[in-house]
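Note to self: keep these together.
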Amino acid sequence: MKTLSILIPILAQSLFGQYNTADMRGNNAGTRYGGGIRAIVSVKQIGQLTGQPSMNNTGRVNVYGTDLGSMFLHSDGRVYFLFGDTFGPPGRPGASGDWRSNTMAYTTDFTASDGITFDGWITGASGQARALIEGRHDPNDGSGEVTKIPTAGWSIQGRQFLWFMSVKQWKKPGRWEVNYSEIAYSDDDGNRWSRSGTRWPGNSNFIQVAVAEQSGYVYFWGVPAGRFGGVKLARVLPPDVLNKAAYRYYTGTGWSASETEGVLVVDPPVGELSVSWNPYLQRWIMMYLNESTARIELREAREPEGPWSAPWEIASARDYPALYGAFMHGKFVENNGETVYFLMSRFGPYNVFLMQVKFRRNVTDVVDEPELPRSVALHPNYPNPFNTTTTIVYDLPEATRVMLRIHDRRGREIQTLVDNNETAGEKFVVWDGRNRYGQLVNPGLYFCYLRVGDGVRVRKVLVLK
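Structure:
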């Protein structure tokens, strides 16, 4: 017996000029594997990218503390790194001098297995890293602008672009208020930047974005201010990126000129994110912070608009306290994307770390029973269909880590029923037809996923009125 594999979300990337995704799919048309993630083989930290000390010893340009690090490839062959609030020694926000709202480094070192060495930074006359577009640094009381944070960058025909948010007030962890988001651009390889005036209001779902290109369009996956919103999708033709009226928002069935008609393609909560096409997996991958679970998660999809799969855990605060951010780039991969390097920030040391994740892909679009420990079983739930509660039964031959989740037909997670270590034996779990917010779900078809180790069992669940 075979069961459908669980699709999983992942990564983000702002990359142009590296490859054409449609061409890549054509070049792989003869492959026999189905694609998608079968397992996360390993995740490890390569080393500290910024700070003093670090693999770059960035104190030489007065960067003792910084965060984020979204990346984009430029026409000069360099990958540029966009960092957020940056400080001199000792490098901590609120306790350090030489506060710059944003800084940018660049490299031609594309072998990440032993670290990434920066070739240089955008600097001022003193040789220290300087802000690209400085924030006003008003008091954090909601009366002005505290800072300007870049969330993504891209390059088109020699012009660099960056998407930044004007932060009005930092609030409780994971929550902040913004004035607007805006696009800036540079025509001299990042040395001088101009404000375009192309803005989204503070209540928009496109305050922080991930950027990628497919089939002649620039795609933007956007989330609102903070780390608790969901993802919407917009696209625009490259010549029109500074024309807000030319943007179209995905409605679930098509594209609309109205952002309010856009639908969520990934449910909350999603923090800092990046998106990329992965040739090894033959999937788009999205990586982001889930503030509620304190972990970096990964999803995947066949198309930019989804449906996006349920999440894999990539890194957790259990191992990396105060982690956030998750930025990938197609230049920093091995074996065509089997191994992906990404940047992760940690607030404690307030610096950026280089991480590595390695995948195993599906040979087909199904996972065979032998991938699970012998005798693992997910039995039909009863009753099925149901309208009040249903009981889910599964067997474990040995003590192991178990995840049991309900997803809708689009692959969106509805409710996590089990996510912990369990002893061997027969297990019973009751689902009352509610989502993670305590709301009754709509009638229809849902899927129950039992994940043990690298394997998955799936059962259909039908909810009646």
